[in-house]
Amino acid sequence: MILFYIIGIIYALISARGVLCLNIGIKFGYIIFAVVILYYFLYALKKKILLYDTIVASILTNLLVQLTGGLKSIFFILYFPAVLVIGYRENQRNYWIITTILFLIELFSSIFKNQFSALPLIIFGIAIIINGIIVEKVLRREERFKRSLTRYEARDYFFGPANFEAKNLITSIKDIDRHPSIERPLLFYVKFLHNLFRAHTTAIFAYNGEKLVLVQGFSHSELFINDAVLDVERGLYRQIIAERKPVLIKEFVQNSDELGYYKGDVRISSVMIAPILILDHVEGILVIDRKGERFDEEAKALFDEATKGVGFLIAMLRLYEKERYESKYLSSIAELARKLQRGLELRAIVNDTVKSFRPVLNCDELSIASVDELNNQGTVLESTYLKENTKFSLDEGLVGLVVKHRNYIIKDDLSEGNLVVLKKGEKRARGSFLGVPVKGDNEVLGVIWLEDHRKKRFGEEDIEALHILSSQLTLAWQRAMLYERVKELSIRDGLTGLYNHRHFQELLEQEMKKNKELILILFDIDYFKKINDTYGHQAGDEVLKFIGRLISQTGIAGRYGGEEFAIILPGSNLKKGVELAVRLKDHINKSEVLFNQLKIKFTISIGIAHYPQDAKNRVDLIERADKALYSAKETGRNKIVIAKSINEKGSN
């Protein structure tokens, strides 16, 4: 591997000298181009990216550009999608190193070959910087969502009922106020230990096999991270979990960052850490640190007993929860819960819930709806009798009242007072009703409700069962929401909200397989650099956002690169594609983007290609549309060029 890195450095030096800057001809260029595209396709699909993979991708891209003319090569634009892909797959440090080297290679190569041109290098440099910043922000957001997901799962497992008798009994316990029977005793115990040891910080972390997640903690430090998630690969914690023995560090001389739960430098003098064991299984760790006075062996002996006490307390609390919730419904709820823990798609989760739970309760109807309190509206997600996606106001029926009161509502006879279940105008309801909210941290996510033609059908057992189901559904629901948000972030451009280049390519491939014909529109903002130079990059961003809002509802829209956008029109013929392009161009010609009381006017150039008339595959279709766009820009800009017209001119 070291030999490969040395070869990579030698290649960079040779390329920077301009030795490879040749002109081998367009035919051979396309052959290399195909190899490069294939490699990037495999690179994008690879599960784990090594620096070796990224260096190969960079060398192939640079080799193609150099062999076909350097800065003058038509393949120079390949750098822009290349840095996008590398940015999303490689870590940030390696991204900046590799893209900077590519920039310097092109710079020095052009100087040595007397082909220096500032414009493409400036654009390339700006693209590297903008892409790096945007990708870094997106990846940070994704990491925060993943951390939240890890915390939800770890806390749910840590505070769930015992399965000491091999019964998979699962309960969602999330906060002290809602379930004091679990977290409050542990909270009091942690506080007791904190005062007993005169600690600076006392914390309990749950261990899920990969991460340590904070579940309870007290600290005198403002730098304490109250949602800390620690990597078990940290040497200290890995050793403690592996050896299952408490550790006393009398004189802690390392930086407090090593502990993982401080976000700055805290002068810790002494630390005690111990694994929390239940039936010889590591459930978490207890950490106590101190400033000033150090812990001694006497404190360690007391700490050992205190850690055993934590394990016993958690075990007793779990057994208590097990006994409390064990009823005729529990085995069925546990089975459903296992399904919910695996589910990531909300629709699939609620579908499983309705199918599995209705027979257990022996009721006529079971329904689940999501709610939007901001817009005072609900939507039926799954029901045994209502149509999916039925909308209703939260002001009209019992389901809305469940949301308003944030508590269960039970009615023994719906015919009394002409009560409405969902909305006015529905068939008159009879019999019994029971509804329970699905509550998140500070909001109502949805409602589960039961209906039966029999009066006084539901009782305390049904209320308890629905509450258990609601708790389970809360975690699954939140996980599904986080999953959707993470998924959406990974396929969307951070600035415009449109699909990013990678996902747009995937969608184009899918649509070409599904449709007999489609239109691909590529368009570019004319003189976009001039907008940035004249009004500033923030103004340029506003123009890009304006385009994003404008085309977001027109077919399948994506940001293809810097100021280049793309639209797929599935099932459309050339006439429809041209009509949309004309409307788009005319609308932009009449529009102005306001920025700091300035009115920015601009135009676009458009290229259109039709599948299968202009091309039979994705790569060729993009190439045809790109050539049409290039022709539009070369022949005066602010115009539309159809790929077919270029082909006909070429044949003539």
UniProtKB/TrEMBL annotation:
<dbReference type="InterPro" id="IPR029787">
    <property type="entry name" value="Nucleotide_cyclase"/>
</dbReference>
<dbReference type="InterPro" id="IPR043128">
    <property type="entry name" value="Rev_trsase/Diguanyl_cyclase"/>
</dbReference>
<dbReference type="InterPro" id="IPR050469">
    <property type="entry name" value="Diguanylate_Cyclase"/>
</dbReference>
<dbReference type="GO" id="GO:0043709">
    <property type="term" value="P:cell adhesion involved in single-species biofilm formation"/>
</dbReference>
<feature type="transmembrane region" description="Helical">
    <location>
        <begin position="118"/>
        <end position="139"/>
    </location>
</feature>
<dbReference type="InterPro" id="IPR000160">
    <property type="entry name" value="GGDEF_dom"/>
</dbReference>
<dbReference type="Pfam" id="PF13185">
    <property type="entry name" value="GAF_2"/>
</dbReference>
<feature type="domain" description="GGDEF">
    <location>
        <begin position="516"/>
        <end position="645"/>
    </location>
</feature>
<dbReference type="Pfam" id="PF00990">
    <property type="entry name" value="GGDEF"/>
</dbReference>
<dbReference type="GO" id="GO:1902201">
    <property type="term" value="P:negative regulation of bacterial-type flagellum-dependent cell motility"/>
</dbReference>
<dbReference type="GO" id="GO:0052621">
    <property type="term" value="F:diguanylate cyclase activity"/>
</dbReference>
<keyword id="KW-0812">Transmembrane</keyword>
<keyword id="KW-0472">Membrane</keyword>
<keyword id="KW-1133">Transmembrane helix</keyword>
<protein>
    <submittedName>
        <fullName>Diguanylate cyclase</fullName>
    </submittedName>
</protein>
<feature type="transmembrane region" description="Helical">
    <location>
        <begin position="95"/>
        <end position="112"/>
    </location>
</feature>
<dbReference type="InterPro" id="IPR003018">
    <property type="entry name" value="GAF"/>
</dbReference>
<dbReference type="InterPro" id="IPR029016">
    <property type="entry name" value="GAF-like_dom_sf"/>
</dbReference>
<dbReference type="GO" id="GO:0005886">
    <property type="term" value="C:plasma membrane"/>
</dbReference>
<feature type="transmembrane region" description="Helical">
    <location>
        <begin position="28"/>
        <end position="45"/>
    </location>
</feature>
